[in-house]
Amino acid sequence: MLGCMDTGTTQSAGQQAPESQVVPNKAPSLSSKNTSFPKSLGWVSDLDGILAADEVQKLSDKIEDFEQRTSYEIALFTGKSTNAQKTYHLWLSDLANDWGVGKKEKDNGVLVGIDLLNKEIGIATGLGIEEILTDQECKNIIDEVMVTSLKENDVYSAFDKALDKIMEELN
User: Fold this and answer.
1) Which fold does the domain 44-170 belong to in CATH?
2) Confidence of residue 63 (pLDDT cuts 50, 70, 90)
3) Can you tell me the distance from the alpha carbon of 156 to that of 73, in angstroms, rounded to the nearest whole number?
4) Burial class (CB in 10 A: 0-12, 13-18, 19+), 76
5) Mean pLDDT, the chain, as a whole number?
6) Strand blocks (E) in the chain
7) What are the DSSP calls for 36-55, one per residue?
């Protein structure tokens, strides 16, 4: 999985993260093969505990419905990289591969990540969809959709609006 890019820094102010919540959802078990990567919690892995339980559920349901209709798999992640020697985007791509986001034979996964602490955003795409969801389109989603919501400290809207744009491109 490699495609799309990160913007490096957003202008969002840091926000207080509530207690981390694990909300069960219908996502397939995305298990980490490498202990240096965080464990997936499903379609939405809010490791920073930023999203409310109902927000995690809404995003998970939206992704599940899309996956059922199209076979594209999209995962969302909040947290920091565990490898300081790689850019956030490259690390997200490795994380997506480790978790198995996307159908193996189609390489059709997308992982959207937000690291509020280090003010980084990234979108990693599978090679099977990089011609549909190009680097430039990912950059536009980050710059025009996600950063605007994050400036207002609204991580849920950043993910929700990014999903809308990604799903529109892939549909």
Assistant:
1) Diaminopimelate Epimerase; Chain A, domain 1 (3.10.310)
2) very high
3) 19
4) buried
5) 83
6) 44-46, 73-78, 109-115, 120-125
7) TSPPP-SSEEETT--S-HHH
| Rg of the chain taking only CA atoms, in angstroms | 14
- Tokens describing residue 60: 């998970």
- The three-class DSSP label of residue 77 is strand
For residues 40 and 70, the answer to whether their CB atoms sit within 8 Å is no
pLDDT of residue 36: 85
pLDDT digits (tens, 9 = 90+) for 33-46: 555 899 999 999 99
DSSP states of 2-22: ----B-S---PPP--------
Tell whether pTM > 0.85: no
